[in-house]
Amino acid sequence: MNITETTAFETFYRTYRAYGLSIAYRMLGTYTDAEDIVQDVFAELAAKDPAVIQNMKSYIAKAVTNRCLNLLRSAKKTREEYIGEWLPEPIAASTDLPELAAEQKDTLSYAYLLMLERLGPMERAVFLLREVFEYDYAQIADMTGKTEANCRKIFSRAKQQFKGSEPPASPVDDEQRKAAVERFADAFLHYDPKMLLGLLAEDAMLISDGGGVARTAIRPIFSRDRIMRLLVSQKAYRDMRIWDTRITELNGETAIVFTSGHEVKAAFCFRFTESGDRLQHLYMIKNPHKLLHLRV
């Protein structure tokens, strides 16, 4: 590379790195893998003549999507053998993903990422490229190697799977949600069953991810009574109560992180009820490999 080519490459990297990460993170649900994918794409791009690439943004989208598809297919067995429930890696508000402050923020929510987990790799790719990144079917066909007609069918099938399960739009504003999460943290830290019962929906669900490394419930816990009894147990989460607790933003939403020194040890993400005043789903991430990248 000469000086001119190096300058052009650096410009492309600064311009499109975050865009590539936005696609890869939603595709994979793991920020560390998303970073690796994007680095690989730009490493390959460094050996190319940028002049032969007609649309750099579409080139990045296609390259990232195909690498993600390959990774998801190869990781299928690993996911199936995963110990306990698999949850996405949460990302902090400081993460270099521009949509955290834009209108696509909802598509980075933790509940949205979990909905995407229902889809197979190709369904996920087509759905995201169409629904979130607004490519037309001809472009998606070129990126995925499918026909336009097939892409339409795949998108329709993926959309059908989401029917009725989208994170609800809530009449409660962010400040009220933050206050509810703060009350939850206080109730959890102080073994307060009465406050917990008032915060949890009747059919609440708690999903934990320890990855076989950290001690967590292997299967989801259903009903607010069972969740409350578990959360106020002096044995179950004794370690979390001695760590520092911080209310912060993960995936653009109010969450709780537990830290020891500079290390994030656990995180709680939430999905609220449609009314916005109760916690419907609680997601607890304790797998240390999914918390390494967090900057809070």
TrEMBL record:
Name of a matching Pfam family: Sigma70_r4_2
Coiled-coil intervals, chain numbering: none
RNA polymerase sigma factor 70 region 4 type domain location: 112-161
Start and end residues of each RNA polymerase sigma-70 region domain: 13-77
Biological processes per GO annotation: DNA-templated transcription initiation
Example GO molecular function: sigma factor activity
The organism's place on the tree of life at top rank: Bacteria
Signal peptide per UniProt: none
InterPro entries (UniProt xref): ECF_Sigma-70_Domain, NTF2-like_dom_sf, RNA_pol_sigma-70_dom, RNA_pol_sigma70_r2, RNA_pol_sigma70_r4_t2, RNA_pol_sigma_r2, RNA_pol_sigma_r3/r4-like, WH-like_DNA-bd_sf
Subunit annotation: Interacts transiently with the RNA polymerase catalytic core formed by RpoA, RpoB, RpoC and RpoZ (2 alpha, 1 beta, 1 beta' and 1 omega subunit) to form the RNA polymerase holoenzyme that can initiate transcription.
Designated name of the protein: RNA polymerase sigma factor SigJ
Protein's organism: Paenibacillus albilobatus
